[in-house]
Amino acid sequence: MESAISSILFYVFAAAAVLCAFGVVAFRNPVSSAMNMALCFGFTAAVYFGMGAQFLGIVQLIVYAGAILVLFLFIIMMLDVKAEEHVRKSFPMACIGVIIAGIFAGFVTKVAISLPGATDGPCPALVLCDTIGDLAPGAIEEKPAEETLAPYGAAMPKLNPAAAAMTLGADEATAAKATAFPDTKLMGQALFTKYNIPFVILSFALLAGTVGAVALGRKIRKD
Amino acid sequence: MTPLAHYLIFSGILFSIGLAGVIIRKNIIVVFMCLEMMLSAANISLVAFSRAQGVNGVPVYDAQVLALFIVAIAAAEVAIGLALIVAMFRARKSVESSTLNSLKD
Asked: In this structure, are residues B4 and B12 in contact, taking their beta carbons and an 8 Å threshold?
């Protein structure tokens, strides 16, 4: 039941994100493109939430939809970019772009569905139909999850709060009582122990980026 | 639960729309937006793999840390890229990529 709803939400948000991505490419006005991109990032963040990656979802919203988008809008406003009025006959170019992107998407789809175990399970659409059938009173009952999943199995493993609490060092009695999945705690643990040095180096990269942006953006004096 | 393959296909479609935008569009700001979309699409597949490869219901957080690094690098890249676009606008008075043809003629 719960997993069926999360599946439906994934398909809805994925379709909306793809639609907004089309909008980014299709709209002539750069401001419309930027707004579509904001929506696309918002739906992507929703997909992250659905996967249980709450921290990355929030980061996606704050950094992409908040900071990067605002930067884009500032630049569009500052440069006063107009919509492309005089569209030259760039039809061949558009065809080439669509063909290359189509071939790429086809390859990715082919690789994804030929992963070992990717097509083992029943078709998700059928599962949804089954679940809707199961919604009859008295029939709601979680089917037992398969014990052995293929490496890239047909279904994603369920999140396990108790095991996560054990990873964080809780004793068994406390871990058994855990209900919420501590995503941000685990993320922080990975970030500040195993990946501490890359994290610090990354901050230097950000500093260098800021200095570079200021150096590139200032007026060049002619004298 | 949605299978991993569908997340990968979603990520691939988003990436190829971004690729098509980079090839088709002339406005360099929109080209840059499409580049950001491609980075974000790659992140989706990283997070999906992190979840699918998890042991005992705990995702592999290495992949999510990598996704976070990609987001941070994307932020730095946007700052520099937009500064470059402003510099280009000062020099050429345009943001069309077709005006960058000084090596051609």
From this structure: no
Domain A2-87+120-158 has CATH 3.30.465.10: no
Helix axes A30-51, B28-52, angle to 10 degrees: 10
Does residue B66 contact residue B46 with C-beta atoms inside 8 Å? yes
Best of A32, A72, A111 to substitute, by most chain B Cβ atoms within 10 angstroms, is A72
Indicate the residue type of A214: V
**Is there a contact between B12 and A112 if contact means CB atoms under 8 Å apart?**
yes
What are the residue ranges spanned by the domains of chain A? Answer: 2-87+120-158, 161-223
Mean pLDDT split into 10-residue runs, chain A, 223 residues: 80 95 91 94 94 91 92 90 66 88 92 76 59 52 48 69 76 74 87 92 94 86 63
Both tokens assigned to B47: 């997070």
pTM above 0.90, yes or no: no
A153 vs B3: CB contact, 8 Å cut-off?
Answer: yes
Would you give the DSSP letter of residue A192?
I
CB neighbours (10 Å) of residue B4? 25
Is residue A96 within a helix (H) or strand (E), and if so which, with residue range? helix A91-113
Q: Which domains does chain B have, with CATH numbers?
A: 4-96 (1.10.287.3510)
**Contact call for residues B91 and A80 (beta carbons, < 8 A):** no
Please name the residue of chain A whose CA is at the shortest distance from the CA of residue B70: A202
B71 touches chain A (CB under 8 A): yes
pLDDT digits (tens, 9 = 90+) for B43-77: 999 999 898 887 777 888 899 999 999 999 999 99
